[in-house]
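Good morning C.,

I know you're traveling, so I'll keep this short. The sequence:
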Amino acid sequence: MVDGHAKNMAPLRIRLRTLVNLRWLAVAGQAAAVIFVSFGLGFTMPLYPVLAAIAASGWLNVILTLRYPASKRLTGTEARLYLGYDLLQLAVLLYLTGGLQNPFALLFLAPVTISATILSLGATVQLGGFAFICVSLLVFWHEPLPWRAGERLDLPPLYTGGIWAAISLGLVFLSAYAWRVAAETRRISDALAETQMSLARQQQLSALGALAAAAAHELGSPLGTISVVARELEQSGAASGPVREDLTLLREQAERCREILARLSHRPGSAEHPDMLAVAPINEILSEVHPDIDPGDTDVTITVRTATHRKPDEEAPPLVRRSPELAHALANLVENAVEFAESKVILHADWNAAELRVRILDDGPGFASSIMGLVGEPYLTTRRSRMAGEIQQAGLRRGQKGGMGLGIFIAKDLLERTGAQVSFANRKSGGAAVTIAWPRSTIEVPAHEETDRLDPLGIGS
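The tokens, ready to paste straight into the viewer:
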């Protein structure tokens, strides 16, 4: 559980300079309105107290600008205090200029709306409550509305009550709407950032595999030459005694290096597995999906199947480019299926002249009906929704843990970048089904590029 105080002390995405600039706009608008009403219209008002309240905001901006660097980011507590001051300053101005009879009372909505977009729900509720108290007090206590000299404008209490109700309701609905939209935006933004990080890690691993393959290929030839020369010198009559022993040691160490490089070259993504670096039939790609789970923690079997009984021109599996996005997305979905499956997970590939379709099927409890329309949204933890009662206990026995609900979102986002449409459903026979469909024109690699698959690093040249 996150400590509330630590959360308030964490820096926000908004800079202090942003709120300072907004306050400068407010100061300029307030000063212009006062000058126009007092000198342009000739209305009477407590001019000096009003200008003093406006000047207080100006001086606060000057102090903050001199005290903090332009890059300073606010904590939750600091932002709440600054916005609370803006509400208090506005309340003082309205008290001096007619209370809620002043049409500028609508500006009470601004600080609370800003709070809803950058602060937590609790902080927004606090500022909204403070604004409501100020609005309510101004109904009964305020100076007369500025008007012509010798005259006094008193609006009906019913009108003032309507203004109070409108502002109060506006504080609730406008702040709730702004907070909801901002929270959704932050949620999607954070999830997309996590997607980028996950993809970057996958790309680094892929690049590392290619680098290891290239190093194994480049170093194999000189090490072979060293071994041959050392063996010839060792067998010649010129080498004897300590020299012969040194040559033997040299040859053994060179052969050991070649064995190490041979093991590297036989790992996925190496020169012996070029299909991991270029293109491969879809059935091979599915057979190489390795979810991030410990095989010892589950007894679920993963089976790859392809459709049969197709037309002669559709018999060959489509060639698909091996990309980090595709590998990571499929591994995430298979991992999720394995965690909820009872005994088996099936990866089923089917295709026709226009479309390539991959289905990931499991025999688990399926998706809960309450979240069916939300599957694929970020921070939706299906582990808590799909496992209940005995299913949850079985999952805990297998060592499953509730996650942050990003796995399926990341997989869906990565697959959609490849041009796929991803859908989620429950099987009639029980279990969940994830369907990934691509137009063949967007995912398939033309047959004439298959030669790249055979020698992507130019090792055979």
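Safe travels,
E.
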